[in-house]
Each structure stands twice: as structure tokens, then as C-alpha cells.
Amino acid sequence: MADDRFAAPPPEGFGRRLDEHAVAGAAEPERPAGLVDSGVYVGGVRRASPVSLADTFRCLQQLHDAMAWIGLRRPSREQIASLAAEFQLPELAVEDAINAHQRPKLERYDDTLFVVLRAANYLDAREAVEFAELHLFLGPGFVITVRHGGTPDLAAVRRRLEAEPGVLALGPEAVLYAVLDRVVDGYAPVVAGLENDIDEIETEVFGGDPNASRRIYELSREVIQFQRAARPLLKVVEALTRGFERYRTDEELRRRLRDVADHLTQVVERVDGFRHLLQSILTVNATLVSQAQNEEMRSLTAASFEQNEEVKRVSAWAAILFAPTLIGTVYGMNFTHMPELGWRYGYLFAVALMLAVCGALYLLFKRRGWL
Which residues are within 8 A (CB) of 7 and not within 5 positions of it... i.e. 6 or more apart? Predict the structure, then answer.
């Protein structure tokens, strides 16, 4: 015989869904800011959709064996405080959920489980990776998800689980594993985007692009951030796996978590490979840049040598031409009492002196390699 509580209507004031018998045009009450969705489930079936936290709390008290799944996005301190008081959430975990900026981790506080995840999303337009933080509180009869970013799309996770009431009936762990699966699946496009960026960088490096070094550093930073998001998640999955026997985890959930672990391991291995590859590319780029600089220095040195040779030749000829100019200038002063002015061989002496000085300078510069 079916359990009567599954057929009972939700309490008055709850379950704002409109069905085919609802009055046409009736408006659904708006949820307060920060509350994305709130559902109360019995046996894996959604029995109510409260529009406020207070309604959710009252609904849980009136429905037997119910589970509340509350989805928040950048909630206020008042909302977090209300949830903490209702579900006896640990104070340290509540502070982490408010302040964010946590690394992926799993912490147990008696019957409450606190999980931090970091989702990633690849932005094609900017060729960059966007990270978002996600916190989960799980306890007897409740799941609270707190998002500090646009990803992941938990509405899709909720629809998927609602389509599988048998799985959702397994309780908060089913929600946790589904969210883990969604986060890890979201890593695949990021891995593909980073791999494509690395291929482009390799082309730029060997093409001599001067901006390649900057892109390598930027991509290396994204890969490191991705590692910080994915690698600690392995410990979270391992901790959940170790608790299979102790917490008597359903076999279906065990299978799903093992699938998540396999995908996550592949992601971590590929990201580790990306980091090593980028280090190799950076080394190759530094070598190519150094070679290019050496070539440029050799070219500058050769040009400077040629310039020096030209300067020496010009200086040598200037010195040679300066000698007859000096002699001619002396004898061109036309003083009355210059001894050579009245000398019969004065002109020949001056010309011979010019030729002798020029010849001597030419031989001197030639011997030193200036000419």
C-alpha cells in the first residue's frame, strides 16, 4: 500500500507551483534577492516550492521525511544567519561561505558536511578561464548551495535530479554527487580551450611573435589556477569514497562518484601536462629570443665595424689632403720677407714638400690598415 504522506497535499502557503487547475493569470510570488530556488522533496518528488526561507522552514516541519534543497547566489549575511540558526550550521563553515575565497575542501561537523568547490568556465571571446566558488552544506533533511559566481548552472542539475526521483530519494548525498559531476563535466571545455591556446602559442613562438612571452605567462597563470581548482578536488572525492562503508552509501551513488573520480583524474593529469608543456615552451621561447638577440648583436657589431672602417678611411684621406692645404696656406700668406718667395726653386720645393708629406701619410695609413 502506498504511503499516505506522499499523496497528501502540501501545507497551506507552500508549493507555489501553478498546475493546470490554477486560475489563469495568477502571478507567482517573487523570491527575495539571493534565493535562486527552494524545493522541498519527499521520496524524491518535489512537493513544494517555497518562495522564502521562512516558508521553507515551516514546510519542513509539516512534511514528514522531507528534504529541502535551497539554492542561494551571493546571499546576504541575514540569509546565511537564518539558515545557520535553523539547521545548526557550524560557525567556521558559515564564515567561509560568507567570505568565500576558499580552496576546494571537505569538512565534517558531526552530522553536517561542508564542501567547497571551484567551478571553471572557458570564455571563447576573451580566450580566458573564469572561476567561480560554490559552497554546499549537507545535513539530515537539507542541502544548501551557495554560489559566488555565475557557474555552474545548478538549475540544470536540479532538473536532472528531479527527472530521476529514485536517485533524488537517496537524500543529500545524491545532490552532492550530482553537483560534483556537473562541476567536473564543466572542466572538459576548459581543458579543450587551454589546449587550443597552447597550440596557438606554439605557432606564435616559432613564428617569432614578440608578444608570445606575455601570452605564455598569462596562460601559465590560468593553468596554475585551474590546478588549484581541480587537484584539491581529488582529496574531496577520496574522502567521500572512504566514507562509503561507514555511512552506508547507496551502490548507485558509489558508481556515480567513481565515474566523477575517473573524469577528474583525467582532467588533473591533462592540466599537469599543460603546465610542463608551458614550461618547455617558455624555455624554447627564451632560447629563440636569446638567439634572435645574439643575431641582432652580431648584425649591430658588423655594422659598427663597417662604420668604423669608413670613418678611418675618411679620416686618413682628410689627413692626407690637409697636409698640402697647410703648406699651401703657409706660402699663400704673401709676406714681403718670406725667404722662399724670391727663391728660383721655391715653387718646386713647395710642390715636392706637399707630395712628400702626402706620400708619407699614405704609406703610414696603409700600413696601419686604414686605407
Answer: none
Backbone angles phi, psi at 46, to 5 degrees: -75, 120
Picking from 140, 198, 135, 175, the residue whose alpha carbon sits closest to that of residue 256 is 175
Over residues 167-189, mean pLDDT = 95
Alpha carbons 351 and 348: distance in angstroms, whole number: 5
Taken as a whole, the chain contains a residue count of: 371
Inter-CA distances, 328 with 199, 337, 344, Å: 75, 17, 17
In the structure grid, which three cell numbers stand for residue 182, read together?
556537473
Nearest alpha-carbon partner for 79 in 59, 101, 56, 102: 56
Average pLDDT over residues 348-353: 82
Quick one: DSSP state of residue 342? Answer: G
State how far the Cα of 147 lies from the Cα of 25, in Å rounded to an integer.
32
Q: State whether residue 134 is helix, strand or coil.
A: strand
Q: At what angle do helices 77-87 and 53-62 cross, to 10 degrees?
A: 10
Average pLDDT over residues 315-330: 81
Contact (CB, 8 A) for 56 and 38:
yes
Percent share of the chain, pLDDT over 70: 91
Residue 191 in grid coordinates: 581543458
DSSP alpha helices (H): ranges in 88-171? 91-99, 154-162, 165-168
pTM above 0.85, yes or no: no
Count CB neighbours of 19 within 10 A: 6
Q: Are 83 and 136 in contact (CB under 8 A)?
A: no
Q: How far is CA 121 from the centre of its chain?
A: 10
HSE-up (13 A, CA, CB side) for residue 255: 4
Angle between helices 251-331 and 187-206 (to 10 degrees): 20
Helix (H, G, I), strand (E, B) or coil at 68: strand
Cell numbers at 296, concatenated: 641582432
